[in-house]
Amino acid sequence: MGAVRPNEESFAVNATAGNLEALEASLLAEIAAAADEAAIEAVRVSALGKKGSVSEMLKTLGAMSAEERQVKGPAINGLKNRVTEALTQRKAELKDVAIAARLAAEKVDVTLPVRQSPAERGRIHPISQVIDEIAAIFGDLGFSIAEGPDIETDHYNFTALNFPEGHPAREMHDTFFFQPDEKGERKLLRTHTSPVQIRTMERQKPPIRIVIPGKTYRQDSDATHSPMFHQVEGLVIDRSANIANMKWVLEEFCKAFFEVPSVKMRFRPSFFPFTEPSLEVDIQCDRSRPGEVRFGEGSDWMEILGCGMVHPNVLRYGGLDPDEYQGFAWGMGIDRIAMLKYGMPDLRAFFDADVRWLSHYGFRPLDLPTLFGGLSA
Amino acid sequence: MKFTLSWLKDHLETDASLAEIVERLTAIGLEVEHVDDKAGLKPFVIAKVLTAVQHPDADRLRVLTVDTGNGKPPVQVVCGAPNARAGLIGAFAAPATYVPGIDVTLSVGKIRGVESHGMMCSERELQISDEHNGIIDLPEDAPVGTSFAAYAHLDDPVIEINLTPNRPDATSVYGIARDLAASGLGRLTGGAIMPHAGQDLCPVKVTIEAPELCPGFALRLVKGVKNGPSPKWLQQRLIAIGLRPISALVDITNYVTFDRGRPLHVFDAKKVAGNLVVRRARDGEKVLALDGREYTLTPEMCVIADDNGVESIAGIMGGEHSGCDENTTDVLIESALWDPITTARTGRALGIITDARYRFERGVDPEFMVPGVELATKLVLDFCGGTPSEIEVAGYAGHKPMIVSFPLPEVKRLTGIEVPKEETLGILTRLGFEPQGSGDLLKVTVPSWRPDIDGKADLVEEVMRIHGVDNIAPQPLTSHDAVNGKILTTLQVRTRAAKRALAVRGMMEAVTWSFIPAKHAELFGGGQTALKLANPIAADMSDMRPSLLPGLIAAAQRNADRGIGDVALFEVSGTYEGDLADQQRRVAAGVRRGTAKLEGSGRSWAGNAGPVGVFDAKADAIAALEACGAPVDRLQIEPGGPAWYHPGRSGTIKLGPKTVLGTFGEFHPKTLDGLDASGPICGFEVFVDAVPEPKAKPTRTKPKLELSPFQAVKRDFAFVVERTVEAGTLVRAALAADKKLVTGVSVFDVFEGASLGEAKKSIAIEVSIQPVEKTLTDEDFEALAKRIVDNVNKQTGGVLRA
């Protein structure tokens, strides 16, 4: 406000061209010099307020002759408009400056770390993930998932699966038993998921297409054997399912599971009590790189599963006529194929719940295995 | 089962290479596990020592010049063997050769200042025996410059097959040759056995007191034998398959065991007192066996005894007392049949693994019992001389062959491939089966060496494996409408959903043992007899778990003991209430330890995570239930839970008065003590199988969305209530005050203070109000607020805070 200011009275009286110019220059200078909104407001009042210098000058128009008004009217109104505009513009400038200052004061260090999303921290165990992968593949092939109890009877675990009396698997050194009941019957922990084959046949007429994942138990413990492990088993029963179909199903599975365009498989005649003919299957792989197995290439063979045509006695135990119905079954270790695919070296670590292991070998919660999104992509 | 290539060729006339034979064996079900082609011995050549002089700087070393043949100049070799001398012919290893016995690859080096360009080897250095008293010393006519292995017949490749338990016939080289011949890889030979006429009856008689354990027994005496070492070729074959040659008589029994799958035993007749009797062992009866160890027997075991006592553990191992040695002049050759199951159990109980047991527990060919004696007799006479007696045969009723009815189309039905009838008949015949009949239905007589064949499916396997599994082309499985139903059951869907939901909450999925220590099971309401294993693999894996929590708490503690105290673990798996199929539950459970909160654990510039507690567990439990499709808005939370929880910091989640869906809370200090665990720790269990099945819906269309045009508003109320009043009751009272307008109630503040009065607390709630028909007036709000305050007062005794 300390700017040189011409006498208001003299302007009012003498609205000469020179005076108007001087007033405009003076006001614009004041506007430009206003440093905040209050200063701007003071300038506005001094110029455009009731008694403001420009307002006073406008008042003189009334007393003028028409000719004089014609000349001075536009000049004074022009002055008013230019001052008004300068005020608006300066006000906007000051607002921008104020915002910029506030924002500058609000600056934070964005390099400070944030907490990781829980969805990134959580993990799905490889066994669950591989079971989901298996379900995705076989679901697409028209299979459903079946389950059964861990605590089984001798009938479902052995007899109905055509294990002869005296078979070594029926001994205490192979199988976990419970204490005998009043009738002398002792329950056991299933040694394979195959009892579910019989339970399904008893419940459901063919056609049957199921895969059975689950926990299994045997008296065994080292780097590749665990007293508790996981198996997945498949069963197809209808009036025509044969070994040629079985080869197709297993090849489709292996390609999909190991995520390779093609894979060589070797079917070797073998022996299981519950299938006849029985086969073991080796899969082509390359083990030349230490700690890594590649499938669908190389010249090594690795055994991955056992399979065969369901034994006529097993069909009979399931209540089916082996001359009317036929089918095939296969079984493999979930932990084993998980180890082969994802490279965990030691089975025992699967059951230790070491969060370092789970974090490394586990899967992120939203990595849902699907055929359309890639099983493990 | 191990054998050598040359041994196989005794019985298989073939031009096939080793590689072809190996590939075919695996293809027909005799999986080759290992082939040792003796390549390691190939670099060793026969060489002659030309000169041998004392090493200038070492008393015990000599410097040799050695002629390695093939016109090459002699090489200088430094040698420490005492028998190194000019003129010796031995086995030479040139520099760069790997010497297996010392695990060294040779290089040219100086020994005490004298250069040595290779090595003259001992037998031990070549790993062909333990002999190391000197270097190999060959006869003068050994051809210098040729392969030592070939000269010494050590180049015979050894093949080891992994035999399935159903194939006793393939425990013999002859049986393996038969399979290969049947598959078209050559011609089966060398099977004929000539009987020997005996001079007299066998003077030792056999009585079978336990015919159920011994369906046949044959015995022959050969008098006047001389028991020395067996011929070199036989010794070499036994060494090649890992057996130690002992004497001609013993080596013959081993040879026949492997050659024809017919285990034999030889007694020194002079050490046998009286006649032989086959009987069950007496309880506690002892025998010193040929392995030099004493075994204590039980009546479940079968023995051969004489007047002195037990002379042999039937089918497993002979006794030391009546064994043959270099002084044996009269030998009794035993060839018997033993019950497979008894043999297996006895062997397992005594911990004895022998080649005899291996065969008897699979089942030896009953019709080869007597021919086995004849074959052994021939070898005894050839190697040791002597005069045979007649063969004494006891108990053998003859073999009644199995006849299988075999419709030829069965091959196509089960395998999907057509095998011409001619080929099918040829395969079966070459394997020793006798197919009879015309047309498509055959009667097939099964040979005595194939006890595994008892139905038409077995014959399909025979045809398939010999015809070639590779000839079966994969055929797609056609789709079946009838089975294309739901892939997963509701329980399976919920199991998967619960896992993903808990993992999304930052928890890691553990898979813990189904069996836990008895003490842990008891702490969680388990430990009943029906769920105790009779033969646990370890004492602390004895009881089927009644809950997933003890395993998870122990797992969290293991991580804490490794220095990672902030862990969040979950598991969705089975627990066991009893041993029946429907007493296995499907449970989702989790624990959080330390500061492993949902948002994160440990310290942060933005605020440190506090210790976990009951509400963390409650949130997890409800999240799991939501994922399982439980009606979350209808759940009731009751204070308190099972005894393993903190009584004041635990809750039970119910649906209706009876259905318990889960429990959550912090743990009782005694529970943690019992598990050797420490906190802060909280956990929950949710019974996935208790969540009601969803109602079947006639349509997938969602109900129409109704949006109110009127603005929703929020109003706060603070009530002073008795300290014992549960917030849940107050919230329900506020909600019930106007079921139409009140759409939500949240608790935003709870505190206790002296200003409120003795044993009082304040609960502040925010009530969401959604007008439905019109905008509410001030009077409407007044009226609604009064209804809320009145209902809260009625249900809880609470009054609006001044």
Briefly, what is this?
The complex is a heterodimer of chains A (377) and B (802). With 377 residues, chain A is of the alpha+beta class. Chain A has helices at residues 8-13, 17-33, 37-48, 53-59, 66-106, 118-121, 126-140, 154-157, 195-203, 243-258, 312-317, 334-342, 355-361; strands spanning 144-145, 151-152, 188-189, 208-217, 228-238, 265-272, 275-286, 294-295, 300-310, 326-333.
Structure description:
The complex is a heterodimer of chains A (377) and B (802). With 377 residues, chain A is an alpha+beta fold. Chain A has helices spanning 8-13, 17-33, 37-48, 53-59, 66-106, 118-121, 126-140, 154-157, 195-203, 243-258, 312-317, 334-342, 355-361; strands at 144-145, 151-152, 188-189, 208-217, 228-238, 265-272, 275-286, 294-295, 300-310, 326-333. In chain A, helix 2 (17-33) runs parallel beside helix 5 and helix 4 (53-59) runs antiparallel to helix 5. Chain A starts with 7 loop residues before the first helix and ends in a 16-residue tail after the last helix. In chain A, 42% of the residues are buried. By secondary structure, chain B is α+β, with helices and mostly antiparallel strands. Helix content of chain B is 25%, strand content 26%. Chain B contains 19 helices and 41 strands. In chain B, strands 29-32-33-37-36-35-34 form a seven-stranded mixed β-sheet, sandwiched between helices. A five-stranded antiparallel β-sheet of chain B has the order 6-5-4-7-12, with no helix packed on it. In chain B, strand 10 and strand 11 (114-116) form a beta hairpin. In chain B, helix 1 crosses helix 4, helix 4 packs antiparallel against helix 11 and helix 11 crosses helix 12 (456-467). The model of chain B has no long low-confidence stretch (mean pLDDT 94). The interface between A and B is large, with 90 and 98 residues.
